[in-house]
Structure formats: C-alpha cells, structure tokens
Amino acid sequence: MAGKLFVISGPSGAGKGSIIEKLLEKDPTLYFSISATTRPKRDYEKDGREYFFVSREEFLDRIEKGQMLEWAEFAGNYYGTPAGPVDEKLRAGCDVVLDVESHGMYSVKAMRPDAVTMFVYPPSFAELEKRLRNRKTETEERIRSRLEQSRQECTHAEDYDYIIINDDLDIAAAEAAAVMTAEKCRTAERLHILKEDKTL
Amino acid sequence: MAGKLFVISGPSGAGKGSIIEKLLEKDPTLYFSISATTRPKRDYEKDGREYFFVSREEFLDRIEKGQMLEWAEFAGNYYGTPAGPVDEKLRAGCDVVLDVESHGMYSVKAMRPDAVTMFVYPPSFAELEKRLRNRKTETEERIRSRLEQSRQECTHAEDYDYIIINDDLDIAAAEAAAVMTAEKCRTAERLHILKEDKTL
Lengths: 200, 200
Fold this sequence. Notes:
Two copies of one chain form a homodimer. Chain A contains eight helices and nine strands. Chain A is an alpha/beta fold. Chain A has a single domain, classed as P-loop containing nucleotide triphosphate hydrolases (Rossmann fold, 3-Layer(aba) Sandwich). A five-stranded parallel β-sheet of chain A has the order 2-7-1-8-9, sandwiched between helices. A four-stranded mixed β-sheet of chain A has the order 4-3-6-5. In chain A, α1 (about 15-25) crosses α7 (about 170-185). The interface between A and B is large, with 36 and 36 residues.
C-alpha cells in the first residue's frame, strides 16, 4: 500500500513547523520532504539534511523534466521540492509531508491531485502579529512585510482541503494527525481490502 | 457551530456497537440516535431509552411528513430514525451518530447530504463468521441467514465515505474518532473562522 502525500501551508507564525515536528515525533516513518536549492551551502549545512544543494543548471533541468513538484525563486536563488525522494518514500508505503507556500500547494495539487492539503491558521490574525512581534528578532519593516505576505497567504485558505486552527499546539497537532489517519481510511484507499478478501 | 451527522454501518459481527460505545465514552456530548418503532414495548424497556415507541398511524404520518431520516419494516413492525431529536442535537452543536443498515444510509444521505458515512468491516469475512459462530446463541440456519445478509451489506461498502477495519477495537475506534475530528476540520466547516476574523 503506497503512502499518502500531505501538504501543510500557513502564514509564518501560525506554527506549521511545530505541528510538523509533533507529527514526526508521533510517526517515525513519516517523511518530511527536504527541499532542493541553488543557493550556496553554508558551513554548518549538510547536503541532504537542510537542503539538497544543486546547481542552477541542474535545477532548471529538473523543472524542465517535470522532476520538481513545486519551485520558486527568491532573491535570485531557486528553491523547490524534488519529486524523486517524495515518490520513493510514497512507493515504500511512507506518508510524506511537504511544508510549502500556497503557490507551491497549487503546483503540487496539479502534479499530484491525490495530495491532501491543510492550511494552518492562528486563533486570530492579531495573535499571529503578536507572535511575530514577540520573536523580537526582526525590524518593523520586516515584520510589516511578513504580515502583508501572511495576509496574502490567507486569501488561499479556501483552496485547501482542511483548516487547522493552532490555538493549542497539542490540539492542532492532534487535528493534523486525525486528518492523516482519516484520509487513509477513505473508501478509495481501503476498498481493495474487501475486494481482495477471498473469504467474502 | 452546528454539530455533524455521522452514519455507521457494517455487517453484524463487525463490531459497530463496540466502536460506537468507545466513541460515546470519548465524547460525552456525542448523541447516539434512538430509533422509533411500532413494535410493542417490552416490560424492561423505557420509552426514549431503547426506542421511542409510537403507534403505526403516527409512524406512517411521520414518514409522510418527511420526519423520518430512514425507516424499514421488519416482521410487520416499523423501525426508523426520527429526524426531530437528531436535528435538535445538531442545532445545539452536538455531533450525532446513527447506527443504520445500508438502505438506511442511502436514505439519510438523500435527506442530509452532508452526513458522513463509515462502513465497519472485520479483518476478513472469515473472521466475521468466526465471531458470529463463537456467540453460540444462534441456530445454524440463523447464522447462515445472517452471513448472507452480511455479504449483501458488504456490496454497499463502496458507497460509504470511509471504511473502518475492526481488527483491534482500540485502533478501529481511534480511526472512527479521527474521521469525526478530521471532518470537523474541513475547509467548508472552518473557513468562517477566517471570514469572521476582524483582525485579518
């Protein structure tokens, strides 16, 4: 039985990362997709851990060949999700989680229509702003730009299959886990059990 | 926020009842619908506990008025799900579970298209037969008739939204609970939170 592909998006500060961490703790066979990038590797980074570091030529070649599930350019560098490792894990029966922005979600859905998508939202946008400001690591300008970007992301929430409200992290992670469990109980995923039951 | 309506079906011996019991333990606000019947009340029964006991005239009148979500006739008596108490609980924000056969599921789906349906299946049909025989309370003829009925029920599995495999009861109940949690995270159920967020 192949694994299932899950896409998790949400504005920065909604707590996507913490939810994914909890999901990975709960299910050690879950594969969290590692992105590929053309930006230079930093000293502390290891190829295949933070990112797969590839050349610009190779990245463009992979896009060309349909080997990227989604990609984007930021500040002159490409970032994206290579299809290879994702498909390999799915074939091995592991579920896969992608952390991508909404434009990435649309691209993944176009290439893998059976992907299940979740949008993580804070209890309110005001709470998101509070969380971002409490980090105290960013300039006012950067905060404003992030908030604007987050507002933009939220306009795409309606195109997701599920919305996870991250007020209490444990509840939010439990909801995301419930979505993953439920999706694997769908009749399309399970009917083969009855069809293959020779005693029926 | 209104509650959600869940329909659970499955051949006898699949363990529907035990799963529903676990769901009710887990969520005390969950309402397990009580059927109405025209059969005479037995001494140990209490109106509104085992069944709502109603006259034949009243039952037929309710069918006429669209006040029965589903109904069937067995051995000259009518049995069915009155819409009133179900709708009342849903309006109060409680989820509702119905234990009905597949013909009842089709009827509920026709009247309440947003109902979510689950079909409980044993690990194999052979296991179902074993469970039925182990009860040792029924004649061979009755067992054969039940098995035939069960096989019939299984032909409808593909029309359900989810299939719950009851091998381990705790896992099966957790899966059913995950379906209920996930369905309440659906974008159609949650988008209003973003729409009503005045800080967004």
